[in-house]
Amino acid sequence: MEPKAPELSSDSGSNQYWYLPFISPSASLQLMNSELFTLTYGALVTQLCKDYENDDDVNKQLDKMGYNIGVRLIEDFLARSNVGRCHDFRETADVIAKIAFKMYLGITPSITNWSPGGDEFSLILENNPLVDFVELPDNHSTLIYSNLLCGVLRGALEMVQMAVDVKFVQDTLKGDSVTEIRMKFIRRIEDNLPAGEE
């Protein structure tokens, strides 16, 4: 029997729980305390900062790790959310903000700053649970601490045939009032079927 997630609260002082995918033959889920997840992520970023010489290399590694997570996470998301194919980028934005972020991080970012062509928007995170308990040291001023999220979004969307550019443009860790992730639709990825198959 799968555990049921308690109602999530935006109060960072309360115990929150998230469902995280657990790789097993039965594809069961495990429940993880949000503080444990936040601290574990912090330990990962700290280790990457020790392993790599500069923040740009750490940022690339976080994006790469996130991409690999997103490529696998999309299957869990589609199975659990019962979301069908999105018809346009606006619908995709709604699914990301209102379902995916809520499901995996317990937050619902707002969608703003649409481009006139409808191919670019911002996700505004009033509260980023990954940065609870975090302060960036002065010698890591160019570190994009939550860059894993950009990779996750890029990897997951690529698996549903959407090439996107995802980047942080504002970050509360760097003194901004909110955290802003900018997403831009690049192109629809066509399936490469062998000749003669449709």
TrEMBL record:
Gene3D superfamilies for this protein: Trafficking protein particle complex subunit 3
Pfam families xref list: TRAPP (PF04051)
UniProt-annotated location(s): Endoplasmic reticulum; Golgi apparatus, cis-Golgi network
Highest taxon above the source species: Eukaryota
Presence of the UniProt keyword Endoplasmic reticulum in the record: yes
This protein's record includes keyword Nucleotide-binding: no
GO BP field: Golgi vesicle transport
Stored CDD domains: TRAPPC3_bet3 (cd14942)
InterPro entries given in the database record: Bet3, NO_sig/Golgi_transp_ligand-bd, TRAPP_component
GO cellular component, one term: Golgi apparatus
Alphabetical keyword list: Endoplasmic reticulum, ER-Golgi transport, Golgi apparatus, Lipoprotein, Palmitate, Transport
SUPFAM superfamilies: Ligand-binding domain in the NO signalling and Golgi transport
Main localization, broad class: endoplasmic reticulum
Function recorded in the entry: May play a role in vesicular transport from endoplasmic reticulum to Golgi.
Subunit structure, interactors included: Homodimer.
PANTHER family: TRAFFICKING PROTEIN PARTICLE COMPLEX SUBUNIT 3
Protein family membership: Belongs to the TRAPP small subunits family. BET3 subfamily.
Protein name: Trafficking protein particle complex subunit
Species whose genome carries this gene: Geospiza fortis (Medium ground-finch)
Phylogenetic lineage: Eukaryota, Metazoa, Chordata, Craniata, Vertebrata
